[in-house]
Amino acid sequence: MPERSTEASPPVALADCATCPHRALLAEGRCVPGDICVTAHSGRQIDRFLRRNREFAESYLHDAFWERRAIAAQHAPLEALRPLPRDEDEVVRRVMVMRLPIDELDDYLHDSDREVRMTAADRLAPERLGVLENDADYLVRMQVAKRLPHGQLPRMAHDAEREVRKVVARRLPPFALGRMAQDEDVEVRRIVAERVLPDDAVRMLHDEDWVVRLRAAEHAPLESIAELVDDAEPDVRAVVRQRLNEFLNGDDK
Questions:
Q1: What would the pLDDT profile of 75-131 be if each residue is shown by its tens digit?
Q2: Helix (H), strand (E), coil (C) string for the chain
Q3: In this predicted model, what pLDDT tens digit does every residue of 208-242 receive, in sequence order?
Q4: Per the confidence metrics, is the pTM higher than 0.85?
Q5: By CB distance 3.0 to 4.6 Å, which of 87, 141, 142, 151 could disulfide with 92?
Q6: What burial class does residue 13 get, using C-beta atoms within 10 Å of its C-beta: 0-12 exposed, 13-18 middle, 19+ buried?
Q7: 141: pLDDT confidence band, cut at 50, 70 and 90?
Q8: 182, 179, 141, 178: which is closest to 160 by C-alpha?
C-alpha cells in the first residue's frame, strides 16, 4: 500500500454506508464497515476493498483523496492508466512508474520526486540508464550505478558522491579498477584494493590507510611487497611475512 514519508493520512472514520454507492455489496460480504471500505479515509480499508472488488478501481483514478487514487492505480487495468495525465501527488506517480511498461516512462525520468526517479532507474532497460547518471540526487545515481552496463560504468568512477563510487568500485571488472586506486575516499580505496588486479595493487601498497595496504598486500606481486615487511601496522606485517614464508616453502600461488 502506498505510503507518505512526511504527510499523515486523515483520521480514520467509519464511513456512512447509507450514502455509499456500493452499499449493495454489504449483503454479499464484499465490503465490511470499518474493515473493507473504499469510502473510508483508511489506506488499509481501501486496499482491502479494491483487492476484493477490482472492477471498481478504474472509477477511483480521479478521486480527490490521493491515497484512494494511488491504491486504485495499483488495481486498475493497465489500459486505464495509460491515458492518465501525470498526477499531482508523488505517491500516485510512484505507483504509475511501477505499473507502466518500461518503454512508457519517459515522462517520469525527470520527475521532481526522487522516489519516482529511483523507481524509474530500477525499471528502465540498462542501456537507457545513461539519461539518469547525472541526476541531482545521489540516491538516484546509486540506483543507476547498480544497473548500468559495465561498459558505461567508468563514466561514474569519479562521481561526486562517495556512496555512488563505492557501488562503481564493487561492480567494475578488476581490470578497470586501476582508475580508482587513488580515490580520495578511504572506503572506496578499500573496496578497490580488495578487487584490483595484482599489478594495479602495487600502486596501493603505500596508501595512508593500513586496511588499504593490507588488502593490496594480500594479492600484489611478491616482489613488490617485501618493503612492507616492517610496516607500522602489525596486521600488514603479518600478511607480508606469511606470503613471503609461503613462497619460500613453495606454497604461495
A1: 999 999 999 999 999 999 999 999 999 999 999 999 999 999 999 999 999 989 999
A2: CCCCCCCCCCCCCCCCHHHCCCHHHHHHCCCECCCECCCCCCHHHHHHHHHHCHHHHHHHCCCCCHHHHHHHHHHCCHHHHCCCCCCCCHHHHHHHHHHCCHHHCHHHCCCCCHHHHHHHHHHCCHHHHHHHCCCCCHHHHHHHHHHCCHHHHHHHCCCCCHHHHHHHHHHCCHHHHHHHCCCCCHHHHHHHHHHCCHHHHHHHCCCCCHHHHHHHHCCCCHHHHHHHCCCCCHHHHHHHHHHHHHHHCCCCC
A3: 999 999 999 999 999 999 989 999 999 999 999 99
A4: no
A5: 87
A6: exposed
A7: very high
A8: 141
C-alpha cell at 114: 526522487
